[in-house]
Amino acid sequence: MISYPRLQAIVAAVRQKTSFVPHTALVLGSGLGGFGEKISLEAAVPYAELPGFPISTVPGHQGRFLFGYVEEEPVVVMQGRVHYYEGYSMEEVVLPLRVMAALGARRLVLTNAAGGIDPAFHPGDLMVLTDHIASFVPSPLIGPNVDALGPRFPDMTEVYSLRLREKLHAAGTKLGIPLQEGIYLQTTGPQYETPAEIRLYRSLGASAVGMSTACEAIAARHLGLEVCGISCITNLAAGLGGKPLSHQEVQETADQAAQRFQSLVWELLSTIEA
């Protein structure tokens, strides 16, 4: 577990730059980086200016917190996340969302790019997360528990809020954006999965696979945050699409779906308090 004093020091450093209090936190995945330019901005805080804060090294991931409004909703946007495969500990990977919670966020919206396993999925589809499988990555809660953050043994019966999933579907209906639903499975990466692994994951009930999100959702539920997750299906998983996988394909498909993805997230955030 990351030391509580380190968390407090980072929160204090943010507070020296802005007194803004968010209600909802948003983590931007691949293809959603431009969303941050749409909010009514109150403050921007680069990660590099925060003591001991992990910095993303992945192309397409900027590194800063944005504070502002989506309509009337006060939000903090994480423009660029860090991943376990970058060499950070799992505790460091989830440190940013603990910071956002300490700054006032009560809800967390997670977005990502994922490979589609469900045969009904196509590149460009948007999937609402109903559950996840995190058994292939270390838990971010390993180590001494900090009671100020949450209980030693947090319940994970409903990681992804039914209320927020219903709001996502209502937003999709309003905007004419069809949405899939499914179970997300997280791996460590950075290598893409083998066809044999994808067959295994499908047998376990996974609908999509990626290298983030589940660990963040676990830490958020430990904190008591209400959580929802949305995946952009950027490619068919290994062995299903008939061609090698590449990060370029992921970015290109995410960019093509960006307008729909951003519109959906904006609609969700603008109605999330109701």
From TrEMBL:
Name the pathway it acts in. Answer: Purine metabolism; purine nucleoside salvage
Keyword list, A-Z:
Glycosyltransferase, Transferase
Q: Which residues bind a purine D-ribonucleoside?
A: 193, 235
Question: Which EC class heads this enzyme's classification?
Answer: transferase
PROSITE patterns assigned to the protein according to its UniProt record, in alphabetical order: PNP_MTAP_2 (PS01240)
Q: Which EC numbers does the record give?
A: 2.4.2.1
Gene Ontology terms, MF aspect: purine-nucleoside phosphorylase activity
Known function: The purine nucleoside phosphorylases catalyze the phosphorolytic breakdown of the N-glycosidic bond in the beta-(deoxy)ribonucleoside molecules, with the formation of the corresponding free purine bases and pentose-1-phosphate. Cleaves guanosine, inosine, 2'-deoxyguanosine and 2'-deoxyinosine.
Subunit structure, interactors included: Homotrimer.
- What's the name of the protein? Purine nucleoside phosphorylase
Write down the species.
Candidatus Acutalibacter pullicola
